[in-house]
Amino acid sequence: MHEPPRIAIAGVTGFIGRGLPALLLQRGFACTGISRAGTGEVPGIDRWQPMDQPDLTGHYAVINLAGERIDRRWTTANRALFHESRVGVTTRLVEAIRALPADQRPKVLVNGSAVGIYGDRDDVILTETAAAGDGYLAGLCRDWEAAAIEAEALGVRVVRPRTGVVLGRGGAAFGKLLLVFKSGIGGRLGSGRQWMPWLHLDDMRAALVHAVVSDSLNGAANFTAPNPERNSDFTRKLAAAVHRPALLPVPGFALKLALGGFGGALLASQHAMPAALLAVAFPFRFPTLESALDDLLGSS
């Protein structure tokens, strides 16, 4: 019996990755999980490979969603974790591809990145052709993407999804926001003028599948909704969705004092637009924040 094309997924036990195999199975793919433990339990995963030495023989594509959560203090130790879980893992995946004969290499690598690569850009509209910005997070993303781009010389199509805030049930960021706003103590961050690129979890997963199957998607791609929001508008709409006021703004200095570098990242503005996805006619199910919140919260 002919086996369906197989996709290896690193980070498949995470918030975004866990629901991805089911979508890929619907499209006729089989899925291999790549994890530090070399095993696990995720619906739709029927094989496992270790993160340190994955064997990618027989795989049509690789999706890399690995990366330690960055919403914590950027200490020296944590920065080492951020780098290893992004740049280190990507480098090992590319080396595993390099180890295969040219005619047996995966056709595509979809390797995570983030809109943090743009730095703090005020109101500048950022498509994928925009230059990288300054700061620690931008530098980390540049190194992350550079490691993935090495696969292009091996004849692999490389897609680099630059994600914003992913909104979905079970997500740490969205869960924390809901807790704060349902308590009636939510409000804008700093001036509230900074742009917040966001994307519904369902669209995020669908875009990853699209990146695998659409040969026309190549290079950097902003995985963000086509209607970004300023932080003040985002918080106002979220508060309204949970029927609470948004009265307590958090001063910028307090964020930086409490969260260090990550606090500064929350104040950065990225007016990112998904030009690459729009160019391939990707069908956003939730193009507006109102539609996303209605789906996620309903009558909350």
Descriptive notes:
With 300 residues, this protein is of the alpha/beta class. It has a domain at 6-168 and 198-225 and 271-284: 3-Layer(aba) Sandwich (Rossmann fold), CATH 3.40.50.720. Helices cover 36% and strands 18% of the residues. Strands 1, 2, 3, 4, 5, 6, 8 and 12 form an eight-stranded parallel sheet that branches. Strands 7-14 form a two-stranded parallel sheet. α2 links the parallel β4 (59-64) and β5. It starts with 5 loop residues before the first strand and ends with a helix.
Short recap of the structure:
The protein has 300 residues and is an alpha/beta fold.
Structural class: alpha/beta
Counting DSSP E segments of at least 2 residues, the number of strands comes to 14
Q: What gross morphology would you assign?
A: globular
CATH topology of the domain at 6-168 and 198-225 and 271-284: Rossmann fold
Q: Based on the coordinates given, report the CATH architecture of the domain at 6-168 and 198-225 and 271-284.
A: 3-Layer(aba) Sandwich
Roughly how many Å is the radius of gyration? 19 Å
Which range best describes the helical content: under 10%, 10-25%, 25-40%, 40-55%, 55-70% or over 70%? 25-40%
CATH class of the domain at 6-168 and 198-225 and 271-284: Alpha Beta
Question: SSE order in H/E notation?
Answer: EHEEEHEEEHEEHEEHEEHHHEHH
CATH superfamily heading of the domain at 6-168 and 198-225 and 271-284: NAD(P)-binding Rossmann-like Domain
- Termini Cα gap: 49 Å
Uncertain stretches of 5 or more adjacent residues: none
Average pLDDT, all residues: 91
Structure annotation, total helices: 10
Instruction: Give a quick account of the main beta sheet: strands, pairing sense, barrel closure.
Output: 8 strands, parallel
Estimated share of beta-strand residues: 15-25%
